[in-house]
Amino acid sequence: MHSSNVRLYIFIGVVITLLLGWWLTSGDDSESDLANASGKIRLQAISTLEQQGDEKAVNIISQYTQDRDIHVARRSIQALGRMQNHETDTKIKSALADKRYEIREAAVVALGDRVDKPENVAILRARLADPREDANVRIAAAPALVGARDWDALPALINMLNDPDRRVRRVAIGSIQQMLGRRYPHRYNPSNDFPVSKRLEFMAYLRSVSKSSDLRKMNDAYKEYRNNIQKR
């Protein structure tokens, strides 16, 4: 074998070894990028760690759920929410204490994918019912509670029908109609032009319905409503 060929094979072997070493340590680069880089590089680092999916990745991402960069914090919470093969609920819940509504909203959305746990449903219900909470956070809690058929959330949804924010009112009536399996197009409208007296009248009606109706029948109505939607 010619010496030139030997040198070529040695060179190729060295290159392959270096590339393999770089690939094996790429996770460490993601940790460094998340800590020291900025902008899209940090977001990409979170995506890489999420795909890595092991306990080390969870621990790294958990450090950034309340990062100063809102985009990084929200993406970290989203990643933890998707990593359901790990116990990340506590880490997600800690973000609910953040002063920025965007972070609390992301935490509520993440917990909304885990309503199989009663404690998570209770947290979402409390956020929904708190009039001091930001409208975006309350709105984010509603779909998961409806999906979980949390009848204990109905009083809060009824109260939201008279909320100052039209977006909250719109989500409230939509959620109530889904839970009850009924529509009320002529009795309520979330628009600002709809008289407050009519709102209060409708709310009183719903309270009487929710107290007097059998929850099993309401649940059956909900199933029928969902079946009708799926057939369309």
In brief:
With 232 residues, the protein is mainly alpha-helical. The N and C termini lie far apart (73 Å). Residues 22-27 have low confidence and may be disordered.
What does this protein look like?
It contains 13 helices and no strands. The chain has two domains: 8-114, Leucine-rich Repeat Variant; 116-232, no CATH class. 71% of the residues lie in helices and 0% in strands. The protein has helices at 3-24, 26-36, 40-52, 55-62, 70-82, 89-94, 101-112, 118-129, 135-147, 154-159, 166-180, 196-212, 215-231. With 232 residues, the protein is mainly alpha-helical.
Label this structure with key terms.
232 residues, mainly alpha, Leucine-rich Repeat Variant, 2 domains
Query: Number of helical segments?
Result: 13
- Give the tally of β-strands: 0
Largest sheet: none
- The radius of gyration over CA amounts to 25 Å
What would the average pLDDT be, to the nearest integer?
Answer: 84
Poorly predicted regions? 22-27
Helix percentage: over 70%
The coarse silhouette is: elongated
Question: What is the terminal-to-terminal distance?
Answer: 73 Å
Q: Which class best fits the helix and strand makeup?
A: mainly alpha
Report the β-strand fraction as a percent range.
under 5%
Write the layout of secondary structure elements.
Elements: H1 3-24, H2 26-36, H3 40-52, H4 55-62, H5 70-82, H6 89-94, H7 101-112, H8 118-129, H9 135-147, H10 154-159, H11 166-180, H12 196-212, H13 215-231
Helix pairs in contact: 2-3, 3-4, 3-5, 5-7, 7-9, 8-9, 9-11
